[in-house]
UniProtKB/TrEMBL annotation:
Sequence similarity: Belongs to the glycosyl hydrolase 67 family.
EC number: 3.2.1.131
Lineage, highest ranks first: Bacteria, Pseudomonadati, Pseudomonadota, Alphaproteobacteria, Sphingomonadales
Protein name: Xylan alpha-1,2-glucuronidase
Recorded GO MF terms: hydrolase activity
Residue ranges occupied by any Alpha glucuronidase N-terminal domain in the UniProt entry: 29-143
Domain of life: Bacteria
Length: 714
């Protein structure tokens, strides 16, 4: 018996040291701190003393721990803590710990930092200065980012402070462990075993988010269950809040409008009813007793069947303000979503949020912020910016991006979202003349708002690599980096991420950045070129379904969006159509009224055009459409070739995952192309342009594909 046990032990020991047992699995995200070469190691080791004042706070402790972990990982030697200056040291200081700090921290606010190479007592040191320990944590993370990505650590002179106050993840996680539109496994929150079992992963989640400046997290799905407001679930949220607090991350909850009726039998959820307002006040008091720094509520009301104040003939403002009053004494806020469209409203879906919300401008309480998706429909591969941006100057508007790729290839397609986020942020609303960008609307500078925010629907799940694929991590990373600083370029962010995720070697970074930068455009090409939208199949939104026309509500059907027939294709949003163009500022509307002055990337979003309409290239709309459908899979094939060339430089496990996923992506890109062309050709009755291959199957084959178990649809 003992001999057998010994055999097992030997076998197990051998297995755990077998090659590959320590393979990279993506868990470490941008906090890998991989061992550097000797020269760089020596460079980094010169900084192996951390100077801090005694009596560190929990936040300063996590900053120190991160620096120690990072330096130990990169150099093999754990840095020492010291109270006195040493050559090369990293000096972490706030005005409270170092009163002589000469004006270093002015203008950095509560979260910003400065990193400067200075001399103190004849010794060269790197000063990380901030007004708070949280600023020091962010500064330490910035320094570690430089260290990991091979950047020079000399002559540093960096100042950085976020312009946007709330930088939040929105988890669409359900209490039963599923995730709506989640493609990375079950929910990261083990609601059942919380609050007793606090998985170590929660702390790593906080580290990863703090490193990119995320400062809040909405824990549950916007399609909320009232149960998340019961005492046991408040205690679970409180346990997470306790873990996240040292990292400067606040917890928020999505709330269900009818919670007072469902949980406590109130006869109404009318926001003007004193009993309803009283219920929410008491609920807010209860939450703040458990979570003193609770952030506030996120609300999806009167949208896609969710209840809301309109059920009682009240407005969104009435509803938001009632909740805001309950949170106000505690300093909490309400994020009220503008993602609304009603089953009994026959108007163009793209117009409905504007129609509902714009008249309410100026009516929201000062602790309400209206959360608007980047486009007017729904997180499509490409949408023009939402016309509400720039149209509600008296109301703070918060951006909502979708990091999880519901409409961009879900778990397996490599479609880097940095360029999509940037395109939206850089869009010019012309609200106050040229230069009134969406970024300036949401950072408050255009209209002088102090309550400002940006949210990303998280792509995080229980998968070991957090996001379902290594490359999906880049979207989480890019969201955080842009939330902190909207002026960063998508390419610079991709470069940082690739260096930290794989290697700072340009032989690795450059091809990877090359792959990433065109990848979202490629998805637009094979899914929804030239301004098409919502071509996805029913329910799961996985794969093409441009023919779908049998769903209960018109705007759930792809045919509603493309309106293709024998004569042409596209949604007429000019004055002769739905008139949606009129929701934009006149400078934009005038350009969009004419197809020839409409950017081709949005052409069919705004215009219904004949198949023989001439594009700028001189080719017909039909030929141009097909050419784009061809271009998408070709780009993916190019990514496959580039990735294959990287094999000698990438660890086996992560190489294999990406290789397999690119194979899936290529197959599915062809499927998208073929199905879309087969369908549109059945209407347009035109031959494919020379060199463009016929679809692999007939239209009926594509129509009969079924995917009842596609993930993400809860
Ligand atoms: C859509 C999703 C749906 C969400 C909705 C929302 O398909 O699952 O509930 O957005 O944002 O994109 O509320």
């Amino acid at each position: 018996m003992i001999a057998r046990l010994l055999c097992w032990m030997i076998a197990l020991t051998a297995a755990s040291w077998a090659p590959g047992a320590l393979a990279e699995d993506g868990y470490d995200l941008w906090l890998r701190y991989a061992r550097t070469d000797e020269a760089r190691s020596a460079d980094l080791a010169a900084h192996a003393t951390i100077i801090v004042a005694p009596g560190a706070s929990p936040t300063l402790n996590v900053a120190i721990a991160e620096l120690q972990r990072g330096l130990a990982g990169m150099t093999g030697v754990a840095p020492a803590l010291s109270g006195t200056m040493r050559q090369g040291a990293l000096w972490l200081a706030t005005p409270a710990s170092a009163p002589a700090l000469p004006g270093e921290t002015a203008g950095l606010g509560g979260e910003g930092y400065a990193i400067r190479s200075i001399e103190v007592d004849g010794k060269a040191v790197t000063l990380i200065a901030a007004n708070s320990d949280l600023g020091l944590l962010h500064g330490a993370c910035h320094w570690l980012r430089l260290a990991q990505s091979g950047a020079s650590l000399d002559r540093l002179d960096i100042r950085s402070a976020p312009k946007i106050r709330l930088r939040l993840l929105n988890h669409w996680d359900n209490l039963n462990g599923t995730v709506e539109r989640g493609y990375a496994g079950q929910s990261i929150w083990d609601w059942w075993r919380l609050p007793d079992w606090k998985a170590p992963r929660y702390t790593d989640y906080a580290r990863a988010n703090a490193a990119i400046g995320i400062n809040g997290t909405v824990l549950n799905n916007v399609n909320a269950k009232a149960d998340s407001l019961t005492a046991p679930y408040i205690a679970k949220a409180a346990a997470l809040a306790d873990l996240f607090r040292p990292y400067g991350i606040k917890v928020y909850l999505s709330v269900r409008w009818t919670a007072p009726m469902e949980l406590d039998g109130l006869r109404t959820a009318d926001p003007r009813d004193p009993a309803v307002a009283g219920w929410w006040r008491a609920k807010a008091d209860e939450i703040y007793r458990a979570i003193p720094d609770f952030g506030g509520f996120l609300v999806k009301a009167n949208s896609e069947g969710q209840p809301g104040p309109q059920d009682y003939k009240r407005t969104h403002a009435d509803g938001a303000n009632m909740l805001a009053a309950a949170l106000k004494p505690h300093g909490g806020i309400v994020m009220w979503r503008a993602f609304v469209y009603a089953h009994d409203n026959p108007d163009d879906r793209a117009k409905q949020a504007y129609a509902d919300f714009r008249p309410l401008d100026g009516q929201f309480a000062d602790n309400v912020i209206v959360q608007v998706k980047n486009g007017a429909i729904d997180f499509q591969p490409r949408e023009p910016f939402h016309p509400l941006f720039g149209a509600m100057p008296k109301t703070p508007l918060m951006m909502e991006f979708q990091i999880t790729k519901e409409y961009l290839g879900q778990s397996t397609h490599l479609t880097y979202l940095g360029p999509l986020f940037k395109e939206a942020l850089d869009s010019d609303t012309f609200a106050k003349g040229a230069g009134s960008t969406v970024a300036k609307v949401i950072d408050g500078s255009l209209d002088g708002h102090r309550l400002t925010g940006i949210a990303g629907v998280a792509n995080i799940g229980a998968d070991r690599d957090w996001s379902g694929s290594i490359f999906n991590q880049a979207d989480w990373y890019a969201f955080g980096r842009l939330a902190w600083d909207t002026s960063l370029s998508a390419e610079a962010i991709a470069r940082e991420w690739a260096a930290m995720t794989f290697s700072p070697d340009p032989k690795v970074v450059e091809p990877i950045v090359g792959m990433m930068m065109g990848s979202r455009e490629a998805a637009v090409d094979y899914m929804t070129p030239l301004g098409l939208a919502h071509m996805m199949d029913t329910g799961h939104h996985y794969g093409p379904g441009p023919w779908v026309s049998d769903l209960a509500r018109p705007e759930w059907n792809p045919v509603y969006y493309h309106r293709a027939d024998a004569d042409g294709i596209g949604f007429d949003r000019t004055d002769s159509g739905s008139g949606a163009i009129g929701q934009y500022a006149p400078a934009i509307a005038t350009r969009l009224a004419n197809p020839h002055t409409t950017p081709e990337r949005h052409l069919l979003w705004f215009h219904h055009l004949p198949w023989d309409y001439r594009l700028a290239s001189g080719e017909t709309l039909w030929d141009g459409l097909v050419r784009r459908y061809d271009r998408g899979p070709a780009y993916v094939a190019g990514m496959q070739t580039l990735w294959a060339s990287l094999k000698p430089h990438i660890d086996a496990r992560r190489f294999a995952q990406t290789e397999a996923f690119l194979t899936i992506q290529h197959r599915e890109a062809l499927w998208w192309r073929d199905a879309s062309i087969a369908y549109f050709q059945s209407l347009a009755h035109r031959p494919l342009p020379a060199g463009s291959p016929a679809p692999a199957h007939d239209l009926n084959w594509y129509k009969t594909q079924r995917f009842p178990y596609a993930p993400g649809h809860s």
